[in-house]
Design brief:
The structure is a homodimer.
Chain A (H helix, E strand, L loop, with lengths): L2 E2 L2 H21 L5 E7 L3 H17 L2 E7 L5 H13 L5 E4 L9 H7 L11 H9 L7 H12 L8 E5 L6 H10 L3 E5 L6 H5 L4 E4 L17 E4 L3 E3 L2 E3 L4 H4 L5 E2 L6 H20 L5
Parallel strand pairs in A: 1-11, 2-3, 2-4, 5-6, 5-7, 7-8, 8-11
Antiparallel strand pairs in A: 9-10
Helix pairs in contact in A: 1-10, 2-10, 6-7, 6-10
Chain lengths: ~280, ~280
């Protein structure tokens, strides 16, 4: 029976670390500031934004929220970002995705100053992730790495199979695993023999977006199974992994909810702290 | 016995395509311009730069070469780049690597304007490669993809194993393969069971930097073997693949020299053409 990896616990430890460092920064008169922009009233986005605000308060950050109506124009949204880019008290800017369809997400991401792009979605920050010399970590994949570290799970030399190739999870997760010396395989909807490949994984990362996609017959005995999926069915959350059956084969497993999900906000706090340090030329 | 993939032939076809498009641009009064900077007198770099100049002449580009002495300072090098960044007749800027040790390669790369960075080495261009929405292709991996296309070798759904994780070849090659729907595994010096993994490859890309590293027992019958290695031993060039023995098992194989090497310059020409089109707002 697998040990459950507790994302709330690990995220709390990350936030504690950020809070401790923030307290020290405040002694120097510096308060990290995060601005969160939300457009429209998607209920899931609303929950995420509220959680981010709470986390900011908990670690001692200054935070602002901009709630813009569904019919906000690109011009209006970009003008909000422009002001935030120029403000010295704002270290990080985050625009909650997805945006309403009439808005150009990539153009919005590109508008955020690279040194305030704490989601690390802009090309320059994505490039740094691939090169391996980054200021900001991609939040969700970095959360996965932090959990592996917390549970002392070795990554170097292991075979990590990532199912899913999104820009937010799959690809950057592959890069972070690679930088930690894992051998990495990236699978996706066009992969042949998916089951056989997954069965070779020491660490299996599921980022598919289909509830219960990863079944026990796809998992090697003793594998570490990381479930990045968040699938809402009838108001309930399900991961990409058929938890009950996979739990019996894996050595470690992340539940949904309470696994990778809570980690993301912890890493966002860490990136915002890093942004504040960079803006004030404070060494790590 | 494998069919040999002829990089000179495929590169010639790429250059012909670029030359044809350049002729059309010239009718509109536009001549793509490439500036190549070389610092010091590394003989291999000298050969590469000469080949790039020749290729520019062949496709009809305007080109300039800046030969700076070994003891050039960062300040001097950056001031050359600054002028080139501002010139309207220069569409692409390339600084031949490696640079002498006292110069900061990343800072030099970062100094080149993103829209003139035809090597696609800057973080913003690397990020676009990972995101999959690029202006400039990474030259060597793009050369590999072009050869596969030329020889009608299917990539979608195939298992591509890349040995090597450099920023110039391994990682971007993995991304281009992924965008073409291959399942991709990235191996490196810390990989366990390298031989077993390589034997599962439909397409094996060797970018290791060790002569004869890939032996026949690492190759599946009928695999496509792409050799990106350029190893100089006693003045002679060797690839990363033990060609004579692997040739007997593979279905297609690239020789060294005459395989991937010549492709790189073709792709550089293509990127420079693309830069010129972008600078003059000409649609593809």
């Amino acid at each position: 029976m697998a040990e459950r990896m507790d994302g709330k616990l690990v995220s709390a430890s990350v936030k504690q670390r950020v809070a401790d460092e923030t307290a020290k920064l405040k002694e120097k008169g510096i308060t990290p500031g995060l601005a969160v922009i939300i457009v429209g009233d998607d209920p899931a986005s609303r929950v995420y934004v509220n959680n981010k605000k709470k986390a900011c308060a908990a670690v001692g950050f200054y935070s602002e929220e901009y709630t813009l109506p569904e019919n906000t124009t690109m011009e209006q949204l970009l003008s909000v970002i422009e002001v935030l880019n120029s403000r010295e008290d704002i270290d990080g800017i985050l625009c909650q995705l997805p945006l309403p369809e009439h808005l150009d997400e990539q153009a919005v991401i590109d508008a955020i100053a690279v040194d305030k792009d704490v989601d690390a979605f802009s090309p320059a920050n994505v490039g740094k992730i691939m090169i391996g010399n980054y200021d900001f970590l991609p939040c969700t994949p970095a959360g996965v790495m932090e959990m592996l570290k917390y549970y002392s799970i070795p990554v170097a030399g292991k075979h990590c199979v990532v199912i899913g190739r999104s820009n937010i999870v799959g690809k950057p997760a592959a890069m972070l695993m690679l930088h930690e010396n894992a051998t990495v395989t990236i699978c996706h909807s066009k992969t042949q023999n998916l089951k056989d490949i997954c069965k070779t994984a020491d660490i299996l990362v599921a980022a598919v977006g289909k509830a219960g996609f990863v079944t026990a017959d796809m998992v090697k005995d003793g594998a570490v199974v990381i479930d990045v999926g968040i699938n809402r069915i009838d108001g309930k959350l399900y991961g990409d992994v058929a938890f009950d059956e996979v739990e019996k084969k894996a050595s470690f497993i992340t539940p949904v909810p309470g696994g990778v999900g809570p980690m993301t906000i912890g890493m966002l706090m860490q990136n915002t702290l890093k942004a504040a340090k960079l803006h004030h030329n404070i060494e790590e």
